[in-house]
Here is the input.
Amino acid sequence: MATSAHRQIVLDTETTGLEWQKGNRVVEIGCVELLERRPTGRTFHRYLCPDREFEPGAQEVTGLTLEFLADKPRFAEVAEEFLAFIDGAELIIHNAAFDLGFLNAELARLAGAGRIEDRCTVEDTLLLARQRFPGQRNSLDALCKRLGVDNSQRQLHGALLDAQILMDVYLALTSGQSEIGFDSAPAEEAQAGAVLPVDVGDAAARPRVRVAPDEAEAHAARLAGLEKKSGRCLWLALETDAA
Here is the structure.
């Protein structure tokens, strides 16, 4: 019996703000289809009317305006087409918790729509990048530079363009030993990741704060969301320097 081709959808969203819990909405969805790791040319791209204002800073990141989005469809109007496009595929998303949180919040407003994870498996390229490049910046722009992916057209964040760039990043990140390797990072990045000996003789006397795993995960997701939308998160940069 012939097996079906491995189908993947590289997905990105743009939103009115950083937190769906505060009522922020999806304003753009971009998807690119791969079959057996090869682009098919099929895409899904929609701008959406959010029926709410942008949070400060979000509009500048995307370049979108409420005036431009005013005559665009609402999520409910494109949900069926969107779900049919992604159904049964493996989703490739950078910082998946961010996009899935927003998309599931949109679906929750529709009766019986379920959750994205009920229809698809998910591969998070941010987690892949952190495993391969621990202690380094792993934003989409940083990965483009490290892996030799052209992102010169990325002046603003756009869902379809970012999905196309992420496709190239994902393929480079997962293409095996023949791809641009670990030694492709600049020497200064390698030096920044070096561990220097320190005197810990009095460490036992210092108070220690232990962070619960769920709190650490929520903190990391929040910082990754900030970096994804702004291109740089100062806290992550400080953590990288400290590492």
User: Anything to note?
Assistant: Residues 177-209 have pLDDT under 50 and may be disordered. The longest strand covers residues 26-35. The beta strands are 7-15, 26-35, 38-47, 90-93, 121-124. The domain at 7-242 is CATH 3.30.420.10 (Nucleotidyltransferase; domain 5).
